[in-house]
Amino acid sequence: MPKPLNVLFLCTHNAARSIMAEAVLNHLGGHRFRAYSAGTHARADQKPHPLTLQVLHAAGIETGGLRSKNQQEFSHADAPQMDLVVTVCDQAAGEPCPVWPGHPAIAHWSYPDPSKVDGDPEQQLEAFRQTLHALHLRMELLVQLPLAGVDRLLLEAEARRLAA
């Protein structure tokens, strides 16, 4: 069986979008992908946003072990080597990132921050649902890519094409 592609999703706080992306890709990716997430400024308490966990659980996606992590956890030589790093928020995309071991493919997929939505609790929950739905659609496309023997440049091109 071929080695799974390691994918790291980055966001600023690693509490909503990147956590959802990690969970969804691990849910859909089977043996072909292994997803991780991190933040450029991860939450000190390491807890994902409660609505993140609520919408993932409601969708039947495993939430055990999800925590907010700093991107530095993945920049060390003994960390899993990433094949693809995807920023999922515009703020993180504009921040300096470490040099990743193995020089993975890089892409940016822009999603609004559901935790910034003002409104009543139902409106806030709906923002998280919409973000999860959008991520799920893109992950379905990612897992359908023919990745056998794909080099870094082609992977990067395909991941960037999915952003459109």
Keywords:
164 residues, alpha/beta, Rossmann fold, four-stranded parallel β-sheet, 5 helices, 4 strands, 36% helix, 13% strand, arsenical resistance, Protein-tyrosine-phosphatase, Ptyr_pPase_sf, Ptyr_pPase
Termini separation comes to: 31 Å
User: Strand count, sense and closure of the main sheet?
Assistant: 4 strands, parallel
CATH topology: Rossmann fold
Give the strand line-up of the largest sheet.
2-1-3-4
How many H/I helical runs? 5
Helix content: 25-40%
Give the overall average pLDDT. 89
Kindly describe this structure.
This is Protein-tyrosine-phosphatase. Residues 5-145 form the Phosphotyrosine protein phosphatase I domain. Keywords: Arsenical resistance. Pfam families: LMWPc. InterPro entries: Ptyr_pPase, Ptyr_pPase_sf. The chain has a single domain, classed as Rossmann fold. The longest helix has 24 residues, at 121-144. It is of the alpha/beta class. The radius of gyration is 15 Å and the shape is globular. It is 36% helix and 13% strand. The model has no long low-confidence stretch (mean pLDDT 89). The chain has helices at 17-28, 50-58, 90-93, 121-144, 152-161; strands at 5-11, 33-39, 84-87, 105-108. Strand 3, helix 3 and strand 4 (105-108) form a beta-alpha-beta unit. It contains 5 helices and 4 strands; from the N terminus they run βαβαβαβαα. It has a 4-stranded parallel sheet.
Task: Produce the secondary structure layout.
Elements: E1 5-11, H1 17-28, E2 33-39, H2 50-58, E3 84-87, H3 90-93, E4 105-108, H4 121-144, H5 152-161
Parallel strand pairs: 1-2, 1-3, 3-4
Helix pairs in contact: 1-4, 2-4
